[in-house]
Design brief:
alpha/beta, 26 strands, globular
């Protein structure tokens, strides 16, 4: 390790307001994929399971994360999903082939189980609609079933299923990744824009209180990105409230210098999408401001064997095609992945003026912060901790930080800062929280913070996550190998903060302020 620390400064001013952080930034995602549902959130017979079959140990960890909203039931799965299969007595529900993940769906966990589960967990539901193999008519029936109080075919059917009160689902996704050739019912931008527009109109006719998310391009690198958003918003601008973004990053080259700054590309993606939304509004002479739903984001690259199996290639996996809930995409996250997730979370907070929903994908077992063994324990992966800290300490007002940091170049990018950081002000309790990642692989970083505008006068707490081995993971045998520790060396004098950040570390510094 290089003994000479890097020098970086952070200026935070209480008047440099980006906007309030919407609690829905701390959302997640449950899809009928692999073991996310079955032996993830739902495992009747597990020692911790409650009377509804929900794993209590998993519910406890989800409550610890304080997840605000969960998107369901997909994902790619939703584009072939018949929602009617998932309601009514469990014994009478049909078994279906899931073409998205080459599995068999038993439908034993369905719409009403999900709604019961989110209520127990204290989570807002976010329902995704099938606009792949289905369309406006089926969406109309679904929202009538979920949100209409009673007196009609579908709402009365819900009541016979034991739910006399409407589910009142507010947030609805109009399909999923519809520009992706892998998607069941893949569409052109014009085809999707038209069906999304008509579906949106119907949903708001049934329930004017709902908020709708149009499906954006499947990723920043897609050839469709940009033209897709403009064409979709040409049709839907006045009928939707959000457009979606999805991004997954991986350290496939085993190069941290390239991997960690991928959060900067996430920032590019957000800013470019904001420009497209505003351009679409300007073209239509509309003052409407479309917000962003970053409803899939995470690190994803470890379980390459699952991807081979799904593509029909030779792999080490032994499950048969069409198995129920086969173990798929079970990435075991390491210390470096926690840094990337922390950096991506910082990016979301630094765009809190336009990003109002974000869903870490996914929540349990499938590229997730929580892992389980069937019939066995549940544990926290490394990426659990940055999300936990953000959810616990990041629900305030995002201030625009002014950062001066040494820069480094990557394989595909020039001028990435070693320091990435966000600042969250809690004026109701006179507190400032700084989230910071030192992305240097071998140098400490001397952070100097100018916080005089907020009259910061004491350090409440400093939590740091780092490890000598960036490939260290948590597992059922060693669940606490990578955990945050408290540090006491931070100094604050006359509104100036001084803290020496470890190489490759995630840091949360909480400060008491007078304003």
């Amino acid at each position: 390790m290089n003994s000479t620390p890097l020098q970086a400064t952070l200026i935070v001013d209480r008047d440099f307001v980006l906007g309030p952080v919407d609690s829905k930034i701390f959302g997640s995602f449950i899809e009928h994929l692999g073991r996310a549902v079955y032996t993830g959130v739902f495992e009747p017979g597990h020692p911790s399971a409650d009377s509804d079959g929900f794993r209590g140990d998993v519910l406890d960890l989800i409550r610890e994360l304080n997840v605000s909203i969960v998107r369901y039931p997909g994902g790619n799965f939703v584009s072939g999903f018949n929602w009617e299969d998932s309601i009514g007595p469990q014994g009478g529900r049909p078994r279906r082939l899931d073409l998205a993940w080459m599995s068999t769906e038993s439908n034993q966990f369905g719409l009403n189980e999900f709604m019961t589960w989110v209520r127990k967990a204290g989570i807002e539901p976010m329902m995704a609609l099938n606009l792949g193999t289905r369309g406006p008519s089926e969406a109309r029936d679904l929202i009538e079933y979920c949100n209409h109080p009673g007196g009609t075919r579908w709402s009365d059917l819900r009541r016979t299923h034991g739910f006399s009160e409407a589910h009142r689902i507010k947030y609805w996704c109009l399909g999923n990744e519809m520009d992706g050739p892998w998607q069941i019912g893949h569409k052109t931008a014009s085809e999707y824009g038209r069906i999304a527009c008509e579906t949106a109109k119907i949903l708001k006719w049934v329930d004017p209180s709902v908020s709708l998310v149009a499906s954006g391009s499947s990723g920043h690198a897609m050839n469709t990105f940009g033209t897709w958003e403009l064409e979709v918003l040409h049709h839907t601008l006045e009928h939707v409230d959000f457009i979606s973004l999805h991004m997954y990053n991986g350290n496939v080259m085993d190069d941290l210098t390239h991997y960690l700054p991928l959060s900067d590309e996430m920032d590019d993606f957000i800013r470019e999408t904001v420009s497209l939304c505003d351009a679409a509004a300007a073209k239509q002479k509309s003052r409407k401001k479309i917000m962003l739903s970053f409803d899939e984001w995470n690190a994803w690259y470890h379980d390459q064997e699952s991807l081979k199996w799904l593509r029909g290639e030779k792999s080490s996996l032994t499950q048969a095609k069409w198995d129920e809930a086969p173990p798929l995409l079970e990435d075991h996250y390491n210390m470096a992945d926690a840094l990337l997730v922390g950096s991506m979370l910082i990016t979301l907070l630094n765009n809190a003026d336009r990003v109002k929903i974000a869903c870490l994908a996914q929540l349990v077992n499938v590229i997730a912060p929580i892992m389980t063994r069937p019939g066995g324990p549940a544990w926290r992966q490394t990426i659990f901790y940055p999300f936990l800290h953000g959810s616990r300490f990041g629900r305030g007002v995002s201030l625009r930080p002014v950062i001066r940091s040494p820069l480094f170049d990557t394989r595909h990018r020039q001028g990435s800062p070693y320091l990435t950081a966000s600042a969250i002000h809690h004026p109701d309790k006179n507190e400032l929280v700084i989230f910071a990642v030192n992305r240097s692989v071998d140098q400490s970083l001397q952070l100097t913070g100018d916080l005089r505008s907020l009259e910061a006068d004491s350090v409440i707490e400093w939590l740091s996550l780092s490890h000598s081995d960036t490939k260290a993971i948590n597992g059922p045998e060693n669940p606490a190998q990578v955990i945050p520790v408290s540090r006491t060396e931070a100094r604050l004098e006359t509104g100036r903060l001084s803290a020496l950040l470890n190489p490759l570390s995630w840091n949360v510094i909480r400060l008491k302020t007078s304003k």
